[in-house]
Amino acid sequence: MDRKGLIESLKERKFSKQIVGAFSKVKRENFVPEDVKYLAYEDEALPIGKGQTISQPYTIALMLSLLELKKGQKVLEVGSGCGYVLALLSEIMGKKGKIFGVEIIHELAEKSRKNLKGYENVTVHIGDGKIGIREEAPFDRIIISAGYKKIPKLLTGQLKEKGIIVAPLGTKYGQSLISYKKINGELKLKKEVPGFIFVPLVD
Hints:
Blueprint: H1 3-12, H2 17-25, E1 46-49, E2 52-54, H3 57-67, E3 74-78, H4 84-93, E4 98-103, H5 106-115, E5 122-126, E6 139-144, H6 153-158, E7 159-171, E8 174-183, E9 186-196
Parallel strand pairs: 3-4, 3-6, 4-5, 6-7
Antiparallel strand pairs: 1-2, 7-8, 8-9
Helix pairs in contact: 1-2, 2-4
């Protein structure tokens, strides 16, 4: 599949104009290693080194849809990897948005910083995503881009009241994409979509 084919497939699946527009502007080949660039627009996860992957475009689009994003929001991505989702978030949020990534694998974080040169509203932190970024909290939205058993408590604390968090939760053998909304300090289930396998969140 080429870039045009991927965009058409996202349109057919009824994703919003904002999400489709972001995918059409961000070049996925800029975020994958040289040896898999020819696969950049296949709708599948690809290896990015250090045992990590860049997620399938459809899966990313679904997670972005579940976040119910609005321009100008402050968003945190946990497990930001190569920076592709951060770039998509930057396009959707616009210049007034603030996007933060946290990545525990030093080499990937450094690589993503290079990939994201020119994205002035994106900042990548190196550290344990389960701890979040306390000094930048609270966030309107949080996306966890790796599988885990539950939402880390510190991240719940860094989510704004009425904010939304989306994560793949389950075991290493399979997860469901789950969105929660924070109401009166507690996470309330909004939606659950089963049938995904993400690389695990690195401890």
